[in-house]
Design goal:
19% of the residues lie in helices and 58% in strands. The protein is of the alpha+beta class. The chain has a nine-stranded antiparallel beta sheet with strand order 1-2-3-4-5-6-7-8-9, with no helix packed on it.
Length: 186
């Protein structure tokens, strides 16, 4: 009878030992497996369109890009051949175009670069205005575009050049910051 008890006790010790040993091995391999997992490469899309809607369900802006590529490690999304359409408070549409752009995650900021062009109606003006620059930032929440770069503003046969600009697309107002020169034709 003691032989059976000794054998049963040996089996129980063997089972408990193998459970503890397998748990220890599994715990030691988890970090290795996690470290070996590939980094999230993000997503990419061609001919993509992003639409943000307001509380009324209507689009506040529509962003179209020939190529969108997420960069999770850098916390941004890169854009190629960008065109945005923004609706202001008077239901007028502004268009923003650029060769490239970036959207930073967890912000409302879109940065545009390369032959940036913004067009739309200024307050109390019947003809559209156009803004030309090489770099521009657009805040999608406040609908303010800004740049520190050289800029050209044209509307109704008028042309102003300066360095730096702040424009509220909601209100249709533009302010050139410095070194402003103008040309007005009759």
């Amino acid at each position: 009878m003691t032989y059976y008890i000794a054998t049963a006790l040996a089996i129980v010790v063997l089972v408990i030992g193998s459970i503890l040993l397998s748990r220890q091995q599994r715990d030691s391999t988890l970090p290795v497996r996690a470290a070996q997992m590939p980094e999230d490469p993000g997503y990419a899309a061609r001919d993509a369109e992003l639409i943000e809607t307001g509380p009324d369900g209507r689009p506040t802006y529509v962003l179209h890009a020939e190529l969108i590529r997420q960069r999770p490690r850098e916390g941004r999304i890169d854009l190629e051949k960008v065109q945005m359409s923004v609706r202001d408070t008077q239901d007028n549409h502004w268009t923003l175009q650029a060769d490239s752009g970036r959207i930073f995650q967890d912000t409302s900021r879109v940065e545009l670069a390369g032959d940036v062009r913004v067009s739309g109606l200024l307050a109390d003006q019947p003809d559209p205005a156009e803004i030309f620059t090489q770099h521009l930032a657009f805040d999608t929440q406040t609908e303010i575009v800004s740049t520190d770069a050289p800029v050209t503003l044209t509307w109704s046969g008028r042309e102003l050049r300066g360095t730096g600009l702040v424009a509220s697309l909601k209100e249709g107002r533009v302010r050139l910051e410095s070194d402003v020169h103008g040309l007005f034709t009759p």
